[in-house]
Amino acid sequence: MTDGAEVRLRPVLESDLAMIRRFLTEPFLIGLDWSGFGDAQQPARRFAKDGYLGEEDGRLIPEVRGQACGLMSYRQGLYSGRAKYWEIGIGLLPEWRGKGIGWRAQALLTEYLFSHSPAQRVQAGTHPENTAEQKSLVKAGFQLEGVIRACEFRAGAWRDGYLYSRLRDDPAPEVTPLPEHPTS
Ligand SMILES: CC(C)(COP(=O)(O)OP(=O)(O)OC[C@H]1O[C@@H](n2cnc3c(N)ncnc32)[C@H](O)[C@@H]1OP(=O)(O)O)[C@@H](O)C(=O)NCCC(=O)NCCS
Fold this sequence. Notes:
GNAT_dom, Protein N-acetyltransferase, RimJ/RimL family, Ribosomal_N-acetyltransferase, binds coenzyme A, Aminopeptidase, eight-stranded mixed β-sheet, Acyl_CoA_acyltransferase, 184 residues
């Protein structure tokens, strides 16, 4: 589709660095994953190093009609010493949430990773109270695998997480254009 109402992924541009710095310095802009202030100079260093497109981890920008909606991440992991997999993450800016972008972007990133690497598995973790991300992952073709007990220290306590995955042969959702033309 070329009507501009589709979600696309693209590499990070220098003009995105201000947004990435906001996620590091504005409490809870990233949502529940806020873990305190981060180094605001780190994005420029990382961008200069490899444009956020590393062999083992990277970032892509979900955009709608040329506007950056937030930030996505992928990081390689290893099971059994030889089975490489990817773990993905997403943070949309508040004005872009609840418009159907999150599940489409996560489905697109999963397809991208399956297309460009032989990984058998893409996984994603979320919080028990993050209903939006749980629904978003299921719409992106992920299945709940289980509870990871006390896997993260957040907001002053060790907390459980939910682990989701999509395997290479799991059914992929059709990533349709957005139902309407959202504006920020
Ligand atoms: C979580 C997030 C990626 C979801 O993306 P989104 O574009 O807002 O939501 P989606 O369009 O993918 O929604 C998928 C489903 O969740 C529902 N949903 C969206 N926001 C919701 C909310 N706040 N509460 C409950 N359900 C919600 C949608 O209605 C949709 O379900 P439906 O098809 O039955 O209507 C996005 O809200 C976000 O970036 N939040 C802040 C950061 C974050 O929590 N990241 C994940 C950390 S693990």
